[in-house]
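for the writeup, i need someone to sanity check this before i put it in the appendix. the sequnce is what the collaborator sent (i think, or maybe the updated version? ugh). structure was predicted straight from it, no edits. if anything looks off just tell me and ill rerun, i have time this weekend
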Amino acid sequence: MQSINGEEQLVIGGDLNGHVGSALDGYPRNHGGQGYGTRNDEGNRALDFAEAHDLVLANTFFKKRPSHLITYASGGRSTQIDYWLVKRDKLKTVTNTKVIPSDNIAPQHRILVMDIKMDIGQRHRPPTTGQQRIKWWRMKECKDQLRVAFNQIDVNTNRPANAIWEDLAGQLCTAATEALGLTKPGKHFIDKQIWWWNEEVQLAVKEKKLAFKKWRQTLTDLDYQHYRNCKSAAKRVVAAVKLAQYDQLYVELDTPEDVDPFRYCCQSGDNRLCSLYHQRRPINRCTYYRPPFFAFLIGDPHVTTLDNAAYTFNGLGEYTVLEAFGENITFTMQARTAIAGVIGVSKATSFVAIVAQENGSAKVEWILKNNITIILVDGDVANITDSRVYFNKTSVWRSENSSITASFPSGISVNVTASYGALNFITMLPESFINMTQGLLGVFNKDPTDDFRAANGTVLPFNGTDVPSESRIYYEFGVTWQITANTSLFSYNTSDGESWHTYNNNTFVPLFYEDLINQTSPERLAFVNASCGGQKDCIFDVLSTNDTNFGMATKNSAGDFGSQGQALQNFPPNITTGGRLFTSLNQTVSVQINAKDPNNDTIVFSMATNSSGLTVTPDGNLTWSPRSSKPAFDVVSASDGKASSALLLNLTLCNCSAHSTCLYNQTTLSMNSSDGSSFQVAGCLCDPGYAGAYCTDDYNACVDSPCHPGVTCTDQPAPSLGFSCGPCPVGLTGNRQQVFR
């Protein structure tokens, strides 16, 4: 079993003469819990065998009626003793198992069948270039030749249009072929779209190829030396360019410039890039993790600032929600409001459009239309799916709940959801923008008392607990952030007469919460309060719009965003134990994995491994008991139920004999898994008298022929390093190593 390659498909079937029963007690990885009868000792031995080799009994994983489980029936007794065994990681290839009661191959035994999908593989054919075609990509470098060729085209126009077009197309292709050349079909395809490839490398490689062709034609020493010089120069250029790109990558991995570094580094096929990614953003530790800071706006505009101050602002028009400034960074987000409710006559408003842009990147707009979010990118409608789409350094994608998120190069992201007549959105900022923001989301400095800073710099007094009245917030803070026609980022449909003036009504005065409460009867207020469960924003929206559905949508959004905020503020556990383990074959090593949770949540440990010899308890007791020299890989996870961190194990196995010392720092084999964990085999320092890779061989002291030629050499058994020489040849004397006449 141990000699079978891990990539091979292993299938074992037959009469194991044991009852594994219907319960999976003690063998959750090997028994599917869908067996028959009661387990006996022979069944335990079968399950022990399966556990030792990480196999599963496939016909215990499919729920069947008893007649499709019983494999042996005699004398009124029915049992299940025939099984199919496959490797656990191949269980997904098994689609069905069952007994066919009517087709007996013996008086008592019944046929047990299994349906399995097996990839027989196909011979890999290296990709080749397609059919012959014109090298249109050379148009820029050959524009002069192409211009001359096109000027020589002469088309007779005194013919039908189809004939003129066919003649013109034919002459264009002929001229382009002469000027640009044709590709050679059927050649091995070489993809040169390498992440570090640039024009400098291309020119150096091209010069080397031209020099090689010339040398092959002339075969002179001078041309050969020129080719060697070009080849060396190309190598130097490639090395310099790659080094510069790696240096730039080091910088980008320490900044939010790259919106998806893992995809570029660890899915590029370049192991060095992936190692660099894990070096700069190690998965083993969460010590330096800092959650993003967030603010959200929902319903009949209820705002929670970046410093967690909550207020309501019912302005009608377009306003600056957030302006963020950093080193060479300017981010602006603006929002548009409209009369809230389906009737459109209430004295309250809701968000119906949002626009955000960072300098040097795309402008993204979210427009509410019939409770559906329309996305504009740089003024044009964009179709957004669940896959990230990149627009000039900005990525946009749709989530499962139909919310649409835009992530900007600075690390700022905006997530927008349409909900019953309003756009609700949550904005997340990195900690680097502290003291760098202004607008309706306040001054981000972890101090809510100065969040109500007007556009002119004056601050509405706030003690951090008792929010100012809505009327003061409206007049002294909110309306000061109304944008102008010159500062607006919104796209207007000018063909329909739409402009900034269409959406900005300076005569509108909202109905404030205090007035709503005073104008509402106690009975109505009690009913609304019960419907909203006491949630203030919901109560306000129901009273201001006279629409219970609108208020409930606000309540649900507040709950969803609150949950998102709690999840964002949760720190994952920080694993403080190192990930290196080493032991010898058939020995056991244990280590306690320790982790700290900044939120004091309960930590539970688990693991993902390919070895049955590796286990971890929920409280972090890790044990490694290797029973074979098969490479083992393992990732230990520490979870607080909301977030997790991982410890990539570095396992070193010693397979040396008892006549040696393990050299754990001098490995003879090293392997890396795709998950980042690694496995090594330790070197062996042999005791005197022993040799071989694992010190299992007796050192042969006669290997260097220490005896005189013609004299027999006999090696002495280990641990001796000695040898003995046979008698001297006839007529000669000596010590058998040196012989004299």
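Residues 11-116 form a domain with the Deoxyribonuclease I; Chain A fold (CATH 3.60.10.10). The first helix runs from residue 41 to 52.
thx in advance!!
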